[in-house]
Predict the structure.
Amino acid sequence: MSLIQTISFPPLGDDRGSLVALEANKAVPFDVKRVYYIFGTLPHVSRGFHAHRALKQIAVCVAGKCRMILDNGKFKEEVWLDSPTKGLLITELIWHEMHDFSPDCVLLVLADEHYDEMDYIRDYDDFKQLILGRKHV
Ligand code: T46
């Protein structure tokens, strides 16, 4: 099974331009408790490098683009987030990294829980051990 689960957000366009509406439990397959966005990341800077224990998220570049790597501890896949109509589902226990941000990139993220640093696994070895069921981290 592919790690890349994208969701198409149909644009509601007319001659004035486009509009995308994201509704919880519709286009977004969970209750949204938090929204954050990442912008002004320099092109040579990478971000992420963690997995979440339980958090589910949808990420979409509403402007510009970036490259997302997803890793389930067994294999990795990558996808360009390069359209405001392309959302990426990031489920729990998926190591994720963001690279190659364009200067105009605004990465919008919808999350199903409030911010909780305890939900982060920021050490790759800990992540692997958890996936392999060898360690409680
Ligand atoms: C993720 C990827 C896609 C908060 O205080 N509240 C928040 O809701 C968030 C998301 C972050 N923060 C603080 C924690 C750090 O001091 O903001 C700072 C930067 O966060 P972080 O280094 O985790 O940023 P990224 O870009 O590496 O990761 C972020 C999200 O944190 C993460 O959940 O999945 O984007």
User: Anything to note?
Assistant: Residues 130 and 136 are 6 Å apart (CA to CA). Residues 124-131 form the longest helix (8 residues).
